[in-house]
Amino acid sequence: MTTIPAASDAQLLERFSGVFERIAAGAVEREQKRELARDAVQWLKASGFTALRVPREYGGGGATLPQFFRLLTRLGEADSNLPQILRLNFGFIEMRLESDDEAARERWLSRIAAGETVGAAISERTGSTHNTVTITPDGASGRWLLNGEKYYSTGALYADWINVTAHDGRDDVHLLVRGDAPGVARLDDWDGFGQRLTASGTTRFDNVRVEDDQILHRFKASEPRRNTIVTAFYQTVHLATLAGIARAVLRDGVAFVQGRTRTFGVPGRSSPRDNPLVHRVVGRLASLAFAAESVVDAVSAALENVQRARAEGRATADDYIALDIQVYKAQQIVIEQVLEASTLLFEVGGASATSEARRLDRHWRNARVIASHNPAIQREAAVGDFHLNGTAPNERFSLAHAKDEPPSVRDDAGERIALAESGR
């Protein structure tokens, strides 16, 4: 593909800053009313943000990975629900960029460039990790019928297309269906205490018709394991969202202090913004936000390096392993930093900081839920196993599931992990 230079960081920020400001202006009200962010998603589509990583040859923004994650952090600052709503959409773009099927890549990336988005219906709320959603032949029509139920369907309620994993009786199948297709029901029954507007609840399929060109991949036991950056990419979306929350904590802490004229325990009028103790708290918030963003910058640069090496045919298996380990290490630090910041925020003021009208608690709740999607303790153990025994993360995943998963699940660990993480 011909490379067309992307816009500079300054040009991109100028292009999207107005959209981010508009989204931020309604964030608290949406949280108070549990009002789904449909308008905000439409603004991001219309601005071209949802197609930032689509190459310009297909009509997208052609942004580099570091540029993308810097802007995603700003979006997370405006409203942390939005990066997660669009997480599968962005991961789907990366999976298409890694695909060797040029016809499918052009078909789907051009649709995203035109403003269509993709949501997730990968995970299930069942007693095991087996795939219970089925896809079966539709008689003589040559089509397929999709039936079953998914949960943790992040972004599906907002999306034009839903990314689904199903089982055809022999293999697992990766496919897309229209969000508004007959037989598709999308429910906002997500009951998490944070990220409440991501609509990460139930999606049901009742005899939904699927055409052959909507089937993207069948997982065959005979296929070799595929190296991919997508696992690391999905985790970095979470890290950028967390870094955005840290920026929002600093922003809201500063705004709260600057608007105050009374310090707890000091009679009469006073100036909290001149209080050395408040200085210390805000200084810590600023430092934590800076550190989280710096880690995301380092990880996104590593992603870009491996992505370029892959495009040039020089990426090795060790490169992908090192990338995953680096992201898992980053996860341990960024999660702790942002949870600390979102708790420390309340030290800038008294009980008035806990007012429901301000909803400052949403920062901690949202950060805690994001941190829980792919448990950090599992990643930390994987990092330790790698340093002690040289065990690659994908190998660890395969061994953990070898006793109760079919061969196709074990042998396609690389893409399996990427798909599993896209659903949470």
UniProtKB/TrEMBL annotation:
Q: Where are the transmembrane segments?
A: none
The yes or no answer to whether the keyword Oxidoreductase is present is: yes
* Single GO term (MF): 3-methylbutanoyl-CoA dehydrogenase activity
UniProt cross-references to Pfam families, sorted A to Z: Acyl-CoA_dh_2, Acyl-CoA_dh_M, Acyl-CoA_dh_N
Q: Which GO terms describe its biological process?
A: L-leucine catabolic process
Which residues are in the Acyl-CoA dehydrogenase C-terminal domain?
240-374
Give the Acyl-CoA oxidase/dehydrogenase middle domain ranges.
121-208
The UniProt record lists the Acyl-CoA dehydrogenase/oxidase N-terminal domain at: 21-116
Return the EC number.
1.14.14.21
Record-stated family: Belongs to the DszC flavin monooxygenase family.
Could you identify this protein by its name?
Dibenzothiophene monooxygenase
To which species is this protein native?
Caballeronia telluris
